Amino acid sequence: MFTEDVHLELKREYTNDTLKTVVAFANTSGGKIYFGVDDLGEVIGVTDPDKEFLQLTNSVRDGIRPDVTQFTSSTLEKRDNRQIIVFEVQKGTACPYYLTAKGLRPEGVYIRQGSSSVPASESQILKMIKETDGDSYEQLRSLNQDLTFETLEKEFALAHIPLGKPQMRTLQIIGEDELFTNLGLLLSDQCPHTTKAAVFEGTSKNEFKDRFEFTGSLIRQMREVYGFLDRYNRTRSVVRGLDRIDVREYPETAVREVLLNSIVHKDYSFGSSSLVSVFDDRLEILTVGGLVKGLTKDDIMIGTSVLRNKNLANVFYRLKWIEAYGTGILRIKESYEGMDAEPVFEITDNAFKITLPAIKLNRLDKKNEPEHHGSEMKILELLKIKTTIQRKDIEQAIGISQPMAVKLLKKLLDNHAIEKIGSGKNVRYRLK
């Protein structure tokens, strides 16, 4: 007599449900299936062992992924003068195994509970994947294998980079088991992660002006979010000499690097969206995922880089969106050099926020104006030619802002190099 338990299953003959049992044994702790024995444990035998063997081995080979055949074996035994087949399944090393027709989801993945083979929960599937593949999210097998890559293919075509199955394997979009990884999921048109953006009135979150949500491949989100930020990155004009120069409210280099940082360094094992907030005086991007273990804020501020998603970063590097690893934070800081405001980096255990202050015209003048002494000499030279001048004449001739012109004129007045004539709107200056 036989009795079913966690390691034993009884079958009168091969049926389609047999594959569920094979999957469950391979995912749990192994077991044996006896063919030719009924549910009560009575031996009834198999009438055509060769046919049963062939059907069983073919269905296991074709109906289960990853390939589990190396962990199975079949023997023919004689019990009560009848022939039965003993099909042994060991626990596999590439769990979770699943039914090819159902895919890597609960209806396709089975585990053994007592004497039954039951569908695994999504959390149990994820646990098996982590135990097999490790903790790197982007290297784990994607639960969704029905993926398309229209956006990625177009981007690679624009960059004149081939993207067939060999390249996908090299980039680790496809794993060694020929299944899509989570990196593939992130780059696919079915990517479940999103970026949410909001535009606020003024400098607080009290009043919304607009809201957006960007979906699809991270490649598509990168382009669309940058385009969104570019629309709200106002252009202002600065006059320098005879030239009027257009400048952006936020350095384009800083915007690009902050966005790349939010995508490449995000912890995608969390389901929450990245948040982009635009105010009148600043731009904020909040990303889930603090620093990689072992790094400190001081480390990243001097250019130390340990990539959380190194394969994703490699794809961006291939597309030439990333020029060199570990330079993003330094580029953001450098783009604000000489300004009287600088970007702010806030880091918690599970989040990273970068705030870019809006650049005002007086800040631009501080960064780009000539040295004070040179500007003073230009004012004096101008006075030798024109005898008397107004403040706006100085602003246009030298290419400086009103506050800077006032500052220079006050210094020349204090040094008794010039004197003021008149008052109010008619005030003029001349050599003393």
Question: How does this model look, in words?
Answer:
The protein is α+β, with helices and mostly antiparallel strands and 432 residues long. The chain folds into four domains: 8-133, Schlafen, AAA domain (Methyltransferase, Cobalt-precorrin-4 Transmethylase, Domain 2, 2-Layer Sandwich); 137-187, no CATH class; 195-363, Heat Shock Protein 90, CATH 3.30.565; 369-431, Arc Repressor Mutant, subunit A. It contains 15 helices and 19 strands. Strand 15 and strand 16 (351-357) form a beta hairpin. Helix 7 runs antiparallel to helix 8. The model is unreliable at 361-371 (pLDDT under 50).
Number of strands: 19
CATH architecture of the largest domain: 2-Layer Sandwich
CATH topology of the largest domain: Heat Shock Protein 90
- Which runs of at least 5 residues are low in confidence (pLDDT < 50)? 361-371
Report the average pLDDT across residues. 87
Instruction: Name the overall outline.
Output: rod-shaped
**What's the number of helices?**
15
N- and C-termini, Cα separation: 120 Å
As a whole number of angstroms, the C-alpha radius of gyration is 34 Å
Which class of the largest domain in CATH terms? Alpha Beta
Helix content: 25-40%
Summed up, the domain count is 4
The largest sheet is: 6 strands, mixed
Q: Which class of secondary structure composition applies to the elements?
A: alpha+beta
How much of the sequence lies in strands comes to: 15-25%
Can you list the strand order of the major beta sheet?
10-9-13-14-16-15
